[in-house]
Amino acid sequence: MSDRPAILEVRDLHAWYGESHILHGVNFAVGEGEVVSLLGRNGAGKTTTLRAIMGLVGRRTGAIKHRGDEIVSLTPDRIARRGIAYCPEERGIFASLTVEENLMLPPVVQPGGLPVEEIYELFPNLKERRTGASGTRLSGGEQQMLAIGRILRTGAKLLLLDEPTEGLAPVIVQQIGASVRRLRDLGFTILLVEQNFHFAARLADRHYVIEHGVVVDRYSRDDINQRMGELNKLLGV
Amino acid sequence: MQTILGIPAPLLFGQLLIGLINGAFYALLSLGLAVIFGVLNVINFAHGALYMMGAFVGWFLLTHLGIGYWPALVLAPLVVGAIGIVIERTMLSRLYDLDHLYGLLLTFGLALIIEGLFINYYGVSGQPYAPPQALQGGYNLGFMFLPAYRGWVIVASLIVCFGTWLLIERTQLGAYLRAAVERPELVRAFGINVPLMMTLTYGFAVALAGFAGILAAPVYTVSPIMGQNLIIVVFAIVVIGGLGSILGSIVTGLGIGLVEGLTRTFWPEASSTVVFVIMAIVLILRPHGLFGRPRE
Amino acid sequence: MSEAVMNLRSRGGRRATSWILAAIGLAIIIVAPLIGLYPVFLMKLMCFALFACAFNLMLGYVGLLSFGHAAFFGMGAYVAGHAVKVWGVTTVLGIFGGAVVAGIMGLVFGAIAIRQKGIYFAMITLALAQMVYFFCLQAPFTHGEDGIQGIPRGTILGLVDLRNSLAMYYFVAAIFLAGFLVVYRTIHSPFGQTLKGIRENEARMVSLGYPVARFKVLAFTISATLTGLAGATKAIVFQTATLTDVHWHMSGEVVLMTLIGGMGTIFGPVVGAGIIITLQNYLATMGSWVTVVMGTIFVICVLTFRRGVVGEILARLK
Amino acid sequence: MRLTKLALATTALVGLATGAAQAEISDGVIKIGVLNDRSGLYADLSGEGSVVAARMAVEDFGGDLQVEILSADHQNKPDVGSSIARQWIDQDGVDLIIDVPTSSVALAVQQVTSDTDTAFISSGAATTALTNDQCAPTFVHWTYDTYALSVGTGKAVVEQGGDSWFFLTADYAFGHQLEADTKRVVEENGGQVVGQVRHPLSTTDFSSFLLQAQSSGAKVIGLANAGGDTTNAIKQANSFGIVQGGQQLAALLGFITDVHALGLDVAQGLTLTTGFYWDRTDESREFSERFGERMNGQMPTMVHAGVYSAVAHYLKAAAEIDDDGGKAVVDQMKTVPVNDFFAENGEIRADGRMIHDMYLVQVKTPEESEKPWDYYNILATIPAAEAFQPLEQSTCSLVTN
């Protein structure tokens, strides 16, 4: 466990979609200011874990503590209001909103969010495409930047990022990696779901591996190089 | 006298103006339907019944409480909106996860109940409702006599339609709505109480129907069956405009009013069928309506 | 292996159950008028049950809600009525003609509407039906709001006089059973299986190379034909064909019947039609409360038992 | 035909037996079924009011006849109406079906009653087909029909100077017939028809049609429609200042409940033909006030008054011959003139038409009206002989054979 105070603590989390039981008791914790990644194969339950934290699954049990308070029974909007922001895998850019409207959509939930100028600084591409165009006219990379950018304004300190690099060109992946590092420097706590292990390895302080809906292993940044072999096996790389 | 296609020009202009007046009612009603479909994914069959209720609330206020037209213009939509909120909270909200046919069927049942109850208590002949003093009489426009009240109908409904459009397209609240139409779950995860927003949206949209009802009370007879036939036409308009398209519903509402007006001049018998013909043609050529876009 | 056996056994069991049910149903149909049930009422019930079954073929098995089935029902009635009364054709031929015309209309409607889904499909069928309604209002042969009245019941091949209630009853029962059998066969044929496949996952069926649109149009045509058959029979039973039969309220009523009985079940529409027709009959003295009661049933149905009476029973039995 | 013969035979038998046995009324009770619209367009002009009127007639009749009243809503659906009628007759032993507005339903019921030798008196239906092609020996048409309405209004209005007409016609058979009949009468009396416009059934907005009527310059705008169409047209004509502009509105089918719904402000000046007005004589006032006590102060329409009058006449005839066979009673009814608050020297003709005086009335201005429901000035009385289709024009088989 990290030495920093836990901002998020998940214990014995179970989650269901309709009749199907997806998570079977997930346990992990994220410390204040950390970047933590959830690794695992396709269908292992990584995305479901993020969605369960946000309250976006059919049913869930167990304990999710945010800054010491139990949030497992709250509705998604109440969870968001506590300062947790979610960036979904499919990015969720709204076609009927312009780029700027997309950026300005999430309401400010707590003081201390990034000013819009700073977000444009972080993602200069967005500034150029700001006016006129509908959000879905953007390229995949730009959409991803928009999806991350818009949750920085709200003042949420804990960001849940679901596969930010999926399907993007290497140069864009690098750019996003740089932004995430910058966000950590700015004091954001980030829980990252990744398939791209190499991307995650360079960014995250710690890693959890999920398989069949349970956490099967964890690695610190330092462990990684030594235990590369077993990790590769776990992830089926 | 100048004629256009064999019809005296003044008569033609008169018909167009009248078409516009009807279009104004259509626009108000179809706007509400479009908003409800867009945000809640429900085809609100009860819209006609709620429109009728708006007219009846106005009549009731006047007859039993002595409250006149102008206060009723505000009160009737509020009352109808409140009823809508109750309907949404207690019934509709349970159906969102299901096929939208269920919403259609539920509201169809509600329409039967509401209309049945009103027929039971008030009969079908209808109740009189006079236009307010200030709007009696009319203007001679040269080509036709325009009753002042009808002029007011156009103005009021255009203001409300345009206001609603601005609200939805140009404000933050509207952005939430539009976003919630696409991905309600994500919008909720941004910290917005989407269920509450849906409730209020339904309340607002049926309040629009109530507004149309009180606006219509002095023009048509206030009768429990006044919404029954109208609702089918308004459905057609929303479909032509493209389900869920706000601008589409307003423009199509006005447009259909004009087309009906013209049909009444050239081929009166067909005037109530023409909207269905247009609808069939539009759906064949553009399956998602004139302003609609495909949705999954 | 054992699972397969179980499956087979339960399927065999289900088949046996449905045979037993069918036998009971048949027995009821044969005996009903003899034990004092009112034949005219029963005939009406069967006409609407057939109507609902035909409608259910679209809603329950193809997953398309048609809000315009009244057009086929009413047209079937008008054609049969006009043919028998004015052209003097025999009753059987008249009913056949009604069904055929409705079927042709179904083909045309289907070809126009079939690209649409969900609400759009409901709306375009409604639009087309409204056009038919206005046609019927205008066309001279329908006699406007008077309707076609005094349609003679005639005879079957000159042998059986259908003015006799009981004879008429068994004639209608035969038509109903024939229609019901067609629905049953359609559902339990490879064609029916394909329809179910389309309902479950249309994209997959397309990728498997099925001409999905053609299947849907065919289903729609069968449904329309049987609906026309029901309407034509009703016209002969009541000796009238009127605008009520083509009005969109009629389209709404058949949805209610199917929903309350259980869409996508074989017997659901029959039960639903039974409930609604009985209610209409016994609530007739209550005036406008009929509408209120029907609306309430609609609402309760949608909110609490969406599977309908039969669907709910089947679910409990499982 | 076979059935009719059977019925005749039965009647003959019954006739023979009357001398011996006392009560030949089947099951000892006369059952009257009031079948009308209780939830739709015609619920106010018939509906519960007709049931009340029938009940009053039974109470007023007194006597030692046992009478029972049933009622049902036919929902304006012919199949519902005819199945209720069948069931009443087959299962409940109903002897008389009364009222039945909506032409299609009345025609369907006619079929059933004539097949089963049950008496049928229509007060609410308008179509003349009931006493022409579709007539029956068991049937009486009591209150009005399209012919009476069009003749009454057409002739009287032309005589009063309204000699150029424009028709606003509901585009279906009823409207067409009303228009054609009126047009003929108008032209026969020296008037002319300058134009007409056909509007779809259940139109909500009449302004375009009214505009055409207005620009035609006709003195009279004839409304050949019914129910909501008529009231909406009148209401909108008022807002377009048509009556103030010097044109006269004539409703070819209008009821006092329509006027009540419109209010005098809007309806004033309207002319229409009616078979009954409550405030016409002492007798009619007396009845109407009793009726009003049971109906929250509502005054009877001509349909309600007709139901009372018809039931009373039926009971008298049934008691007289002590029989409840449909044709038998109707035959008896035809032999006795009708004399009550509704009709003076009314007569039921061979084709089943009850002929009586009709009245051309004009709706009062709000200033003229002195009490609730004080709505009409009677302009003219149309004598029974002129008001209805002449018997020699009837295509009824009872007349032509």
Plain-language structure description:
The complex is a heterotetramer of chains A (237), B (296), C (318) and D (401). Chain A has helices at 46-54, 76-81, 99-104, 116-122, 124-128, 140-150, 170-185, 197-203, 223-226, 228-235, and strands at 6-17, 20-31, 35-39, 59-66, 69-70, 84-87, 158-162, 189-193, 206-211, 214-220. With 237 residues, chain A is α/β, with parallel strands linked by helices. The relative contact order of chain A is 0.18. With 318 residues, chain C is mainly α. Chain C has a domain at 39-247. With 401 residues, chain D is α/β, with parallel strands linked by helices. Chain D has helices at 2-18, 47-61, 78-92, 103-115, 146-159, 173-188, 207-216, 227-239, 256-262, 264-267, 282-294, 302-321, 326-335, 384-387, 397-400, and strands at residues 30-36, 67-73, 96-99, 119-122, 139-141, 164-170, 192-199, 220-224, 248-251, 271-274, 347-348, 354-355, 358-363, 376-382. In chain D, the strands form three sheets. In chain D, strands 7-6-8-9-10-13-14 form a seven-stranded mixed β-sheet, sandwiched between helices. Chains B and D meet through helix 1, helix 4 and helix 10 of B and strand 7, helix 7, helix 8 and helix 9 of D. Chain D: Residues 1-23 form the signal peptide. Chain D: Residues 30-364 form the Leucine-binding protein domain. Chain D: InterPro entries: BCAA_transport, Leu-bd, Peripla_BP_I.
The pLDDT mean of chain B sits at 87
Could you estimate the helical fraction of the residues of chain B in percent? 55-70%
Q: Tell me how many strands of chain D there are.
A: 14
Could you tell me the strand content of chain D as a percent range? 15-25%
- Fill in the CATH topology of the largest domain in chain D: Rossmann fold
Give average pLDDT of chain D, whole number: 87
Alpha plus pi helix count of chain D: 15
The total count of strands of chain B amounts to 4
Q: Are there runs of chain D of 5+ residues with pLDDT below 50, and where?
A: 1-23
Task: Spell out the key features of this protein.
heterotetramer, B: 296 residues, ABC transporter involved in vitamin B12 uptake, BtuC, two-stranded antiparallel ribbon, D: 401 residues, Rossmann fold, seven-stranded mixed beta sheet, five-stranded parallel beta sheet, globular
List strands and helices in order, with pairings.
The complex is a heterotetramer of chains A (237), B (296), C (318) and D (401).
Chain A (H helix, E strand, L loop, with lengths): L5 E12 L2 E12 L3 E5 L6 H9 L4 E8 L2 E2 L5 H6 L2 E4 L11 H6 L11 H7 L1 H5 L11 H11 L7 E5 L7 H16 L3 E5 L3 H7 L2 E6 L2 E7 L2 H4 L1 H8 L2
Parallel strand pairs in A: 3-8, 3-9, 6-7, 7-8
Antiparallel strand pairs in A: 1-2, 1-4, 4-5, 9-10
Chain B lengths: L2 E2 L2 E2 H32 L6 H19 L3 H22 L9 H23 L15 E3 L4 E3 H23 L1 H11 L1 H6 L4 H23 L11 H14 L4 H21 L7 H12 L11
Antiparallel strand pairs in B: 1-2, 3-4
Helix pairs in contact in B: 1-5, 1-8, 1-9, 1-10, 2-3, 2-4, 2-8, 3-8, 5-6, 9-10, 9-11
Chain D lengths: L1 H17 L11 E7 L10 H15 L5 E7 L4 H15 L3 E4 L3 H13 L3 E4 L16 E3 L4 H14 L4 E7 L2 H16 L3 E8 L7 H10 L3 E5 L2 H13 L8 E4 L4 H7 L1 H4 L3 E4 L7 H13 L7 H20 L4 H10 L11 E2 L5 E2 L2 E6 L12 E7 L1 H4 L9 H4 L1
Parallel strand pairs in D: 1-2, 1-3, 3-4, 4-5, 6-7, 6-8, 8-9, 9-10
Antiparallel strand pairs in D: 10-13, 11-12, 13-14
